Amino acid sequence: xxxxxxxxxxxxxxxxxxxxxxxxxxxxxxxxxxxxxxxxxxxxxxxxxxxxxxxxxxxxxxxxxxxxxxxxxxxxxxxxxxxxxxxxxxxxxxxxxxxxxxxxxxxxxxxxxxxxxxxxxxxxxxxxxxxxxxxxxxxxxxxxxxxxxxxxxxxxxxxxxxxxxxxxxxxxxxxxxxxxxxxxxxxxxxxxxxxxxxxxxxxxxxxxxxxxxxxxxxxxxxxxxxxxxxxxxxxxxxxxxxxxxxxxxxxxxxxxxxxxxxxxxxxxxxxxxxxxxxxxxxxxxxxxxxxxxxxxxxxxxxxxxxxxxxxxxxxxxxxxxxxxxxxxxxxxxxxxxxxxxxxxxxxxxxxxxxxxxxxxxxxxxxxxxxxxxxxxxxxxxxxxxxxxxxxxxxxxxxxxxxxxxxxxxxxxxxxxxxxxxxxxxxxxxxxxxxxxxxxxxxxxxxxxxxxxxxxxxxxxxxxxxxxxxxxxxxxxxxxxxxxxxxxxxxxxxxxxxxxxxxxxxxxxxxxxxxxxxxxxxxxxxxxxxxxxxxxxxxxxxxxxxxxxxxxxxxxxxxxxxxxxxx
Length: 566
Known about the structure:
Mean pLDDT: 83
Distance between the termini: 91 Å
Strand order of the largest sheet: 1-5-4-3-2
Helix content: 40-55%
Low-confidence stretches: 324-339, 551-556, 558-566
């Protein structure tokens, strides 16, 4: 409780403040009695000292020394029965007390003994603490119920405004308003927010409740500000109350403290929901890119919440912060042991990139994979203007560097018209990044340049590619797995060597007759002439499609019982 509140009790009837009146706003945690010169070693911050000054009668200079020691220890004040031993308080001590705003209370006229004053004061302080605790529990419950009813942080701020009759402002860690008073103070909030920003910008982050004064007369005499930091597992922002000095009380601060606690818990919950949603999203794209999702239907089903659908078109972007260990795609030991600061920095970069990319006007989904930020860009029916988009990304990269010094490089894959093709578009985006890094570039935007036959395959639906592959090699489906692999490997080598038998045998490390035997068997099983130009083209295309159907490079022939339609 405040010292002024303690002195207002009947216990201190006839007590008189003889110096340091302006210090009566100090808090009193405990009360103690002294009759020994070394009592300073046993005092604590927030303690009111009761004394009759016996030991100081012979050495008046000790009064000044004790007072200064108590001031350094942040004690509440000193209550003295000067008439008990005819103690004279030196004039210079009173002047020093006024300068330090250290309260000295004359209690000679109080009829109670020091022991009785101690006992009753302690009981009063304990009762006051109990009342404060009950009040804090009540306020905490009230704010928690508001959260449970879905009124959110804005509802808490409005409730604070009513309880305290003061405008309230909630800022995030970047001093941006999250919520503010809407009830009676809306016109005043822009000026208050600007004043708070001017004070806090560039200042050290307060780790405990702090009060300060605003001198701007345009703020309608609301010159006092009480600030409570809002914390979750990290610093989240500030809760500020603007008030006139006479409104300040201990319960006023308790109300703000409980509000900041509940707001912190609500922000923690919101952050947990956000991180869980982001984790699910990251896991989906990681599975898709790493090849764990093997069917178009599964990709569409799991990715529908991210805008992946049949007959869609997408382009993948991979963005990385230029820095140690990123140019070659490797994670160094520092990256593996990221502390809270590094995680917070990565989250800030994620939000910044997302916010700037939103300004481009393209529909997208953002995720993280290893050291990269992935962006899935949804293409509109109007088509894909790559050159114009490259210019937009270059401007985005420049703005990020100007704002926060983030040197970001971006790789762009080729468009994909089926869900499984997103994997290849992302791989192309990574290759584009690696190409830029090999040229020792930073803060670049690089698109994937190669447009081979695989690029054309990405433009075709995955199911159509699979059906073409299975129909082409339907004749060898019933052979044993080992024999099927040998036949396909021989066909691939045969066409790679321009249908030269000797070169094929050398490439496969088998006898020429073995190659002839396998090729003859292929012709019989497939019912075609391998050197026929039309059939040769069909078989070459099917062999080129094979890697797109199986991420590990193995043969993916269907085992369905019915022969597909020609």
